[in-house]
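Tokens in:
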């Protein structure tokens, strides 16, 4: 498995819509940088946020997360309370080819301020907006800027398809469309980014053979 350079990322974005919208250069002036880089792509954060509050809970339970724990906010700047976090999404919509896996790392501009960006890997065949979790590890309020860079995505391509992914693609191919099998996995397929809820299920499985 090898990391892919800027020209490969650009080709996949322009010809196969792997990243949409795609910025084919680094934008830096007056903003936290975003766009394609030497060996990755700096993603942007959208202006819709869910800010964590502890008003209704004393314990955060990943199996029974109370939606009242999040406060909705929309704006160009968002303040994260001390020792708290927020959820957001990327501006970019991703369509990950079946032999590709991506790793997402927070930008140094925010890391130096004690803000940690946590994103799980984009699995082969997945598509959707990326949900971002941003933690404020400091005892002070911290600011996040919408429509600017938030993290870098590194793209890795394997030589062969994994046995699990190969089996899953074969099953999907036989059905030709998402059916009960995919619904059981709580997965959806969506070719229209505009129809995906910013914080809904975005674990679509694609039939692309790139």
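Residues out:
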């Amino acid at each position: 498995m090898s990391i892919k350079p800027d020209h490969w990322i650009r080709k996949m974005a322009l010809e196969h819509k792997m990243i949409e919208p795609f910025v084919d250069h680094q934008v830096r002036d007056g903003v936290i940088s975003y766009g394609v880089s030497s060996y990755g792509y700096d993603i942007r954060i959208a202006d819709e946020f869910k800010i964590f509050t502890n008003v209704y809970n004393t314990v955060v339970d990943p199996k029974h997360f109370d939606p009242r724990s999040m406060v909705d906010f929309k704006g160009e700047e968002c303040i994260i309370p001390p020792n708290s976090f927020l959820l957001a999404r990327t501006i970019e919509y991703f369509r990950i080819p079946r032999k590709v896996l991506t790793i997402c790392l927070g930008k140094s501009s925010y890391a130096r301020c004690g803000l940690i960006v946590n994103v799980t890997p984009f699995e082969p065949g997945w598509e959707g907006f990326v949900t971002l979790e941003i933690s404020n590890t400091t005892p002070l309020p911290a600011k996040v800027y919408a429509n600017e860079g938030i993290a870098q995505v590194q793209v890795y391509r394997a030589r062969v398809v994994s046995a699990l992914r190969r089996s899953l693609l074969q099953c999907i191919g036989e059905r030709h469309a998402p059916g009960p099998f995919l619904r059981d996995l709580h997965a959806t397929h969506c070719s229209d980014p505009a129809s995906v809820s910013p914080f809904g299920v975005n674990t679509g499985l694609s039939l692309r053979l790139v």
